[in-house]
Amino acid sequence: MNNAKLFVIDYSLHGEPKSFIIRLEKLDTLEAWHWASCDAGVGRIGRFAREQVKKTSREQAEKFGITNVQWRRSDARAQA
User: Fold this and answer.
1) Edge-to-edge strand order for the sheet containing 5-13?
2) What is the 3-state secondary structure (H, E, C) of the chain?
3) What distance in Å separates the CA atoms of residue 34 and residue 45, rounded to the nearest whole number?
4) Does 64 reside within a domain?
5) Residue 9 domain-assigned (yes or no)
6) Total structural domains in the chain?
7) Pairing mode, if any, of strands 16-24 and 66-73?
8) N or C: which end of the chain has fewer CB within 10 A?
9) Rounded Cα gap, residues 15 and 36, in angstroms
10) Residue 80 lies inside a defined structural domain of this protein
11) Model-level pTM?
């Protein structure tokens, strides 16, 4: 993981805002929904690095009250 970067993922769980930081090589919207569901206790994280785990989709996450998933690089500057 030499190319790992820090990302901030913001989401709402039953209307309550949540946020966390994760270190990954790359992140996209589909991955952000999966990691938000993991943070909320809905998604599954593999026990081993090579274990293939089915990602939690947006539709599945929304059934458990997860909404408004957004992500950004942690070093991205806020726009005024």
Assistant:
1) 16-24, 5-13, 66-73
2) CCCCEEEEEEEEECCEEEEEEEEECCCCHHHHHHHHHHHCCCCCCCCCCCCCCCCCCHHHHHHCCEEEEEEEECCCCCCC
3) 9
4) yes
5) yes
6) 1
7) unpaired
8) C
9) 14
10) no
11) 0.85
Which residue type does 79 have? Q
Report CA-CA distances (Å) from 1 to 55, 56, 69, 76.
20, 23, 24, 20
Nearest Cα neighbor of 60 from 72, 44, 47 is 44
Q: Say if 79 falls within a structural domain.
A: no
User: Which tokens in the block code for residue 15?
Assistant: 């209307």
CA distance 20 to 80: 22
Domain with 13, as residue range(s), is: 5-73
